[in-house]
Task: structure prediction
Amino acid sequence: MTFLVRLARSQAGASVAATLLALAAVTLVVIAGGYDIGHAATALWNGSVGSPYSFFTGTLLRATPLIIVGLAVAVAFQAGVLNIGAEGQLLAGAATAVAAGLSMAAWPGWISVPVELVAGMAAGAAWAGIAAVLKRRFGVLEVISTLMLNFIALFGVSYLVRGPLQEPTHIYPQTASLAASARLPVIIPGQRLHLGFVTAVVLAIVAWWFIRSTAGGFRIRVVGAGAAAAASAGRVNVDRVVFGAFLASGALAGLGGAVQVTGVTYALFEGISPGYGYTAIAVALLARLNPLAVIVAGIFFGGLEAGGAGMQRDAGVPSGFVSVIEALVVLGVLAVDRARILAGERGQPTTGEQAA
Amino acid sequence: MSGGPFTAFLEAGVRTATPLAYAALGELVVERAGVINIGLEGAIIGGAFGALVFAGAGGVSLGFAGAALAGILVAALFALFVVTLRTDQIITGTAMSMLGLGLTGTLYRTMYGSAGASLHTPTIAPAPVPGLSAIPVIGPALFDQPVVTYALYALVPALAWWFYRSVAGLALRAVGEHPEAARGAGISPDRVQWAALLFGGAMGGIGGGTLVLAQVGTFAEGMSAGRGFIAIAIVVLGRWTPFGVAGAALLFGAASALQTLAQTTGWAISYQLPLAFPYVLTLVLLASARARTAAPAALGQRSA
Result:
C-alpha cells in the first residue's frame, strides 16, 4: 500500500496506480463472473503480446488510431478545449481520404497516399472548425456542438456510402476498395502493421516537442491553465490560441480516420470507428495529456482491445469487458488525482504539487 | 393500426419520442442544477438491462422499477465523482457511458449465455383511450399508446409547475445559475445536485426500460444507441424548459419515424437528411443569442 501511495505522488505514477486499481477490480469481477482467471489471463496475454502476430497485427495495429486520435484530444484539452467531437472529425477525415483516394487510383502511391492523408487532415480540421467558429463567434459550448457534429458526421457517412460514394454494384453500403497503390504500405512483412504506426509515433514526438519547447506550445499551456489569467497578462490572444488548438485537434482526428481507411479498412463504411473518438479521451487522460505518454497509453489500450478479443475467443469472457476496464481506468485516474489534490491541500498548502 | 401511412408515421413518432422524452426531462433537471451528464447513455442502457432482469422476475411494473433503480445506481456513481469528488463532468460522463455499455454487455452475456438467447420480457400493450383515440389522424398517435407515454402528459406540466412555482424548483435553478449565491441563501449545492442527478438517473433508466418493456420486448447490447447524447441535444433544442423539451423530443422522434416511413413506402429519398435535421437545427439554435441566455449560467462549470 505504501508503494502505491508513493507511486501515486508522481505524475506517471498516478496513472500506473489507477491502472493497477482498475485491473484489480476487473480481476475480482472476472472471478465473480465464474470465469477461469488463469485461462482468461492467458488468453489476454496471447491475444495482445504473446506472439509477433498478436503484438504487431493485434496490439500495435489497434493502437495506431488510438494514438493519433489520443493526440488530437490531448492537444485540445491542453488548451482547455473540451473537444469530444474527435469521433465526427475522424469520420470526416476518413470519408474525405477515401473520396480522394478513389479519384486518384491511377496515380503513383507517393503522390496519392500523402494527398489522402492531407485531405483527411483538412476535412477533420474543417469539421472541428464548425464548432470552433461557433465557439469563437457565438460562445457556443463546444461540448454540445461537437456532440451534434458527431451525429451529423455519422449520418453523412451513412448517406455517402449509400449514395455518391457507393461501390459500383450498388449492393453494399460501402465504398469501393482503394487501389493497392493508394494504401499505406505495410512495414513488417507478414504483418498488417502499416506506416501509420510510425506516423503516429513521429507525430507524438513532434507534438511533445511543440507543446514543451515552442512559444505556440507555451501559449497553449498558459491558456489551458486559465484563460482569464492569460488574457489579463495581455500578451496572449486567448481566442486565437483556442481556435488554433481546436483546428489542430480536428486535423489530428481527421488524420486518424484517414490512416485507418488507407491502412486498415481500404474502404469507407458506417462502422469504420468502434468509438475511437471516445476511447481516445480515456487514452489522453491516462497519458495526463502528455503526447509522449499518449504512445504508451495508446499501446496499452490497443493491447487491451486485442487481448479482449482473445479473451472472448478463448476464454468466453465477453469483450464488452474491455470497455469496463477502460472506464475504470479513467475513473481511477480521476479519483487518484483528486486524492492527490486533497492530500496536497491538507499537507503542504503553499508548496503543493501542481495538477496537470 | 388503421388510418394510412401518415397516421402510422405520427404514431411511430410519438412512440420513438417517449424514451427520449423521459431521458431528456431527467437531463433537463440535471442541467438546471448546473451539471451536464454526458454519461446519461450509461443510465439508459443500465435501465434497459434492469428492466430485462426485473421484468423477467416479476412483470412489467417491477421491470420499470428495476429500470429506474439501475439508472439511479449509474447516476449515483456519476454524482459521487462529479459532485462529491469534484471531478471533470465531461471526462467522468464519458467514462460512465463506457462503463454502462461495457458492464451491461458483460453482465448480459454472463447471466444469459453467450448466445444471447431469444429472451423476451413481458411488454406493456397500448391502452387506447376511449373516444380520444378515435380522433382522425392524431388520435391514434397521442391516445393509442402505452401508459408510460400518457404519464408524460402529466409529468411535463408538473415539472413546469415545479420549476417555476415551487421553492425547491427555485433552489434547483439557483444552484444552476449561481451556486455560491445559492449557498449564501442557505441551499447546499451538493445536495441539490445529488438529488437532481438521482432523479435524472431514474428518468434515464425509465427511458431505457421503455425501450425494452414498451417497444422491443428484449434487451440487446448497446441498444441505447446514442439516445443519451440525443437527449442532451433535445434539452438544448428545448431551450431548457419542460414544454420545449417535450416538443424537441417529438421532433427528434418524428425525424427517426420518417426513416421508417421512407422505408415502408419505398421512397427513393435518402433518409439520412431528415435524421440529421434536428441536430443541424440544434446547432443553428445554439448560435442564436436567445438559446445561450436560456442555458443555466453555471452549466458544467462546477469542478473547482
About this structure: Chain B touches chain A through 50 residues (CB under 8 Å). The CA atoms of residues 71 and 79 of chain B lie 12 Å apart.
